[in-house]
């Protein structure tokens, strides 16, 4: 069996963030599998078949990739950001575990990428420069109560935070509740960063205090970062810098 | 003023994880500043001055970089992993905030890299595929009580976890206490991953249950990942796969 599956991270958007090992995997592939906008980032070439699929069909896509590899194809499953952070790697392993026993012998590897939270952090300064957590705010795959519980504990732990999928058309209200939970446990001066379309030409970084934050500042293309109680703002002529010091004062 | 400072992530070890934008920044630099082993990853060339420094002098190094940029030099501060995750970005911004007011006008940027935790996660499967946190276990810059508090809250939140700097010669005992805290709140079957020298030729990934974990499994080159209560192990002929499903059951 000479097929393989590589689950590869394309990074947050700009091409210069794609690691050489991911570029090389794509060059070796016979098939690219992924959500439509990610597959469209791959240049077509002879010998390469592009398989676009909608979102919300992650398990179908994963099974398709594994079956093609079992048939000897060299398959790259493309994710944006890092495939191991709220992306395709877990879906592929779910499919592998539940699927044909022979799939366990397949060569399946994950190549990391720059995840949106860390690209947003770099664009703003270093707000995640101390202990932090990452929470997916979508309640499609977990109960809302668990999201709220994690938020409250993260506030109590004084983690900086990165929020993925803060708000969508199907979930317009959850993020307002997130802001309410933050306001119960954090001072009004707490720093938030709304990073939209990070590392693309449409990138927009807005730094606000918790008191000024509104739900409408987030959408599906936004990653929201919340500083810890120690996070600082450096004002200057250009964009401000937000960072969390290494020491706890 | 034509100088600049770029704080760049070299990724966890292998060259194929360095993003093209970081490679380009190094190509444009007149000066490279960093901890000795990271600077030694940069190929010498005419016109490029390499400034190696010991660890524990991060602020001196940061001031040096900023002063050189103020003098018109093009300076890359190299970090391993991602500079925004327990690395040099926060140190540079601490120095900038406390330093000469003219430094605020400098062109200072952060280029993200693949952080060790996410490279380790990719090597093991997708153990951080659901909500997770990152904790630096060194108490050099924060009180030990805060580390324990964060650990207990992270266990209560059922985050997967990534631990940086779990153990060193100067801090031989802290990681034993970390394992004790985990044992208070997690089942003996909880999955841990000890990822040593991740993405280098010496990479070693050990997957163990909490009941079997010992402090000696970690050292300064190890990143430790702890699964959530949902994290699963797929046994197979080769290395096992550890992943956290996207859904909470």
UniProtKB/TrEMBL annotation, chains A, B:
EC number: 2.1.1.131
InterPro entries reported in the protein's UniProt record: 4pyrrol_Mease, 4pyrrol_Methylase_sf, 4pyrrole_Mease_sub1, 4pyrrole_Mease_sub2, Cbl_synth_CobJ/CibH_dom, Precorrin_MeTrfase
Keywords linked to the UniProt accession: Cobalamin biosynthesis, Methyltransferase, S-adenosyl-L-methionine, Transferase
Keyword check for Iron: no
Gene Ontology biological-process entries: cobalamin biosynthetic process; methylation
SUPFAM superfamilies: Tetrapyrrole methylase
Gene Ontology molecular function, alphabetical: precorrin-3B C17-methyltransferase activity
Metabolic or biological pathway, per its Swiss-Prot or TrEMBL entry: Cofactor biosynthesis; adenosylcobalamin biosynthesis
Enzymatic class: transferase
Residues annotated as domain Tetrapyrrole methylase: 5-213
Keyword Lyase attributed: no
Protein name, as recorded: Precorrin-3B C(17)-methyltransferase CobJ
Species this protein is from: Roseobacter litoralis (strain ATCC 49566 / DSM 6996 / JCM 21268 / NBRC 15278 / OCh 149)
Lineage, broadest ranks: Bacteria, Pseudomonadati, Pseudomonadota, Alphaproteobacteria, Rhodobacterales
């Amino acid at each position: 069996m000479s097929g393989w599956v590589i689950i590869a991270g394309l990074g947050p958007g700009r091409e210069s963030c794609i690691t050489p090992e991911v570029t090389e995997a794509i060059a070796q592939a016979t098939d690219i599998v992924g959500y439509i906008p990610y597959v469209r980032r791959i240049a077509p070439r002879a010998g390469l078949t592009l398989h676009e699929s909608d979102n919300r069909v992650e398990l179908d896509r994963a099974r398709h990739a594994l079956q093609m590899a079992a048939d000897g194809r060299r398959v790259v499953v493309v994710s944006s950001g890092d495939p191991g952070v709220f992306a395709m790697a877990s879906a592929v392993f779910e499919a592998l575990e539940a699927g044909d026993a022979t799939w366990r012998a397949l060569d399946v590897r994950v190549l990391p990428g720059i995840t949106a939270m860390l690209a947003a952090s770099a664009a703003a300064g270093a707000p995640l420069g101390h202990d932090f957590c990452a929470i997916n705010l979508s309640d499609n795959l977990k109960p809302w109560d668990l999201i709220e519980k994690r938020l409250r504990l993260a506030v109590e732990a004084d983690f900086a935070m990165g929020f993925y999928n803060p708000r969508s058309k199907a979930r317009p209200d959850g993020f307002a509740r997130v802001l309410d939970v933050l306001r119960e446990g954090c001072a009004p001066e707490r720093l938030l960063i709304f990073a939209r379309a990070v590392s693309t030409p449409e990138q927009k970084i807005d730094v606000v205090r918790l008191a000024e934050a509104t739900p409408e500042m987030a959408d599906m293309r936004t990653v929201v970062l919340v500083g810890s109680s120690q996070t600082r703002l450096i004002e200057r002529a250009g964009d401000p810098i937000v960072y969390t010091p290494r020491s706890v004062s």
